[in-house]
Design brief:
The complex is a heterodimer. Chain A is an all-alpha fold. Chain A is built from 14 helices and two strands. Chain A has one domain: MetI-like (MetI-like fold). In chain A, a hairpin with a 3-residue loop joins strand 1 and strand 2. In chain A, helix 4 runs antiparallel to helix 11. Chain A starts with 6 loop residues before the first helix and ends in an 8-residue tail after the last helix. Chain B is an all-alpha fold. The longest helix of chain B is centred in the first third of the chain and has 33 residues. The two termini of chain B are about 45 Å apart. The chains are: A mainly alpha, B mainly alpha. The interface between A and B is large, with 95 and 90 residues.
Chain lengths: ~325, ~280
């Protein structure tokens, strides 16, 4: 005796098998999910979620290490907003840094990427060499550039003296007027290669026909850049701008090693100021720096979300 | 005529590109030259090729100034943290990419949104927490913090890759009697190896170079990682440029060695979070 099944029956059996496999019905599902997620969730709860909440809590307290915690309400916030000029100096520096540098970095990176895209010889070698600064640690970068900016034997002053502009030789990191820009320049040196590589990947992924069509239409280099290339790789550029912006809003290492925030607070950033107030000044209070961190957290969140909504492409380009 | 103009343009472009190359790679080459010269030689002329290669400076820096200690500390912390974060994040990514359950996207979003957080928001309270549980100034504490720090980006990259693996593979594995853990261990991990290698490189560089949390969470000299070690070394011997350059090079050499052999993979790894 043979059991025969109609095609419809077979299909329905297959379907039920399929759906069981695909959706994996309730039994043992939570066990599985928990097995996979527990380690990550534990780490996340203990070393990210709890500390963030703890910082919010801290910001309403005065905390003397080993000496207890007192609730002070909004006193820390009041002090921050009304009686702390150093903080505002740090905010100004950080915002200046975070608004100027991403544009230079991404713009320069895109230009360099276009140069390599124009099929110059040795493009691969250029790309690999330009990327190296990103791999170095901030400590290494800071030490190298402190030597470059050195007054007596640094190469920057050396070059200026060599071309006869000895008057412009400078203690670049020691002068409040140039210190911030010098730090910024170092960062540009470090990150342009990164932006170049990402832009190059985006430009290379563009369909050749579009660019060829533009060339047939006698579209100039400048127009091609602004009306075709930039709009088409806009999501990538936006990503890079936001990444760079976030990086600059938290900049600590480089400034800390190169200038320590000085001279005269001219390179003080919010990150270095938080660190100073928490661990470096003998003010013995972890509450106030937590307040700064909380306020800054909200500011960063606000800026990132605004930038993202403002610059996002509403209608996605298909190509 | 137009050919001349074209060549001239090309030449100009090449000059600009070479100039930028000198700018981008020059400082590093300069330091590697100085690392092989003695400080008196450098004081005579900082910008020249070494006349004699003083390789012995590496041995001196390594043995006489705790560099070996810093190096092994960094090596240990980085290895353990990278291993742990790879396993934990790949498990999470596998689960989020493969199984449907209520809250899946919520968990993904929570982990993902952490990428925006500036580190200052956890820095002070992590210090408090670690002090309280006796983990302050220990490598274990630092490793745990690094795992938490690198997890969001790793999960984000791996989830993107794992979710594109064909479901048929997993259905077939299930028919063959694979348990869920087996399908992670014997399917996702081997197939996802390219993406995992990318995140391993990224995490290795980030942790090897990390400075802020090391400064906050490590206090004693013998527990310093390389970035802290270099900073101390620099502070101790401010005038001894040649020796500092050697010290700097010791910390950079592992990274550069990997870069020479796997430059494409490394570029891909470092930019993985930015390319979509």
């Amino acid at each position: 005796m043979r059991i025969t099944k109609s095609p419809a029956q077979v299909e329905s059996i297959q379907e039920s098998w399929g759906s069981r496999l695909r959706l994996d019905p309730l039994h043992c599902r939570w066990n599985t999910v928990m097995l996979f997620l527990t380690p990550a969730l534990l780490i996340y709860a203990a070393f990210t979620a709890f500390p963030v909440l703890r910082t919010f809590y801290n910001s309403f307290h005065r905390i003397i290490p080993g000496g207890g915690t007192t609730f002070v309400g909004l006193a820390n916030f009041a002090e921050l907003f009304t009686r702390d000029p150093t903080f505002w100096k740090a905010v100004k520096n950080t915002l200046l840094w975070a608004s100027v540098q991403p544009c230079i970095e991404v713009g320069l990176g895109l230009l360099l990427a276009l140069c390599l895209y124009a099929k110059v010889p040795f493009a691969r070698v250029f790309r690999v060499l330009w990327f190296t600064p990103v791999l170095l640690s901030y400590v290494v970068v800071a030490i190298i550039w402190m030597w470059i900016y050195n007054y007596d034997w640094g190469i920057l002053n050396g070059l200026l003296r060599w071309i006869g502009l000895a008057d412009y030789a400078h203690t670049w990191l020691g002068d409040p007027k140039t210190a911030l820009w010098s730090c910024m320049f170092t960062q540009i040196w470090m990150w342009t290669g990164f932006n170049m590589v990402v832009s190059l990947a985006a430009v290379s992924a563009l369909p050749a026909e579009v660019l060829e069509a533009a060339e047939l239409d006698n579209c100039g280099w400048f127009k091609k850049l602004f009306f075709i290339i930039i709009p088409m790789i806009r999501p990538t550029l936006l990503n890079l701008l936001i990444l760079s912006f976030m990086g600059k809003m938290r900049i600590f290492d480089l400034v800390w090693i190169m200038t320590g925030g000085g001279p005269l607070w001219s390179t003080e950033t919010v990150a270095t100021y938080v660190y100073k107030r928490a661990f470096d000044w003998n003010t013995f209070d972890l509450g106030y720096p937590s307040t700064i961190a909380t306020v800054w957290f909200i500011v960063v969140l606000f800026f990132v979300l605004t930038l993202y909504t403002l610059l996002r492409q509403r209608d996605k380009l298909e190509y | 005529m137009s050919l001349i103009l074209r060549n001239w343009k090309r030449a100009l472009l090449m000059i600009i590109l070479s100039g930028y190359t000198a700018f981008a790679a020059g400082p590093f080459i300069w330091v590697s030259m100085m690392s092989l010269r003695t400080t008196p030689e450098i004081n005579d002329n900082p910008y020249t090729f070494p006349e004699a290669f003083h390789w012995e400076k590496y041995a001196v820096a390594w043995s006489e100034s705790d560099y070996s200690v810093y190096f092994w500390n960094s090596a240990m912390v980085t290895t353990i943290a990278v291993l742990a974060v790879t396993i934990i994040a790949s498990m999470t990514a596998h689960c989020l990419a493969r199984y449907r359950f209520p809250g899946n996207r919520l968990i993904f979003f929570i982990i993902f949104s952490t990428l925006i957080f500036p580190p200052q928001i956890v820095m002070i309270s992590l210090f408090q927490v670690l002090v309280k549980y006796g983990l302050f100034d220990t490598h274990l504490g630092l490793i745990l913090v690094y795992i938490a720090l690198q997890m969001p980006l790793t999960v984000f990259i791996l989830e993107g890759f794992f979710s594109r693996l064909p479901q048929d593979l997993y259905d077939a594995a299930k028919m063959d009697g694979y348990s869920n853990f087996e399908s992670y261990w014997r399917l996702t991990l081997p197939i996802g190896l390219p993406a995992i290698a990318t995140t391993v490189i990224l995490n290795f560089i980030h942790i090897w170079n990390e400075f802020l949390f090391a400064v906050v969470l490590i206090a004693s000299d013998e527990k310093r990682t390389l970035p802290l070690g270099i900073q101390k070394f620099y502070g101790d011997r401010l005038e001894d440029v040649g020796m500092i350059a050697t010290g700097v090079m010791i910390s950079v050499i592992p990274v550069i060695l990997i870069y020479i052999f796997f430059s494409e993979k490394m570029i891909q790894g470092m930019t993985a979070g930015a390319v979509k």
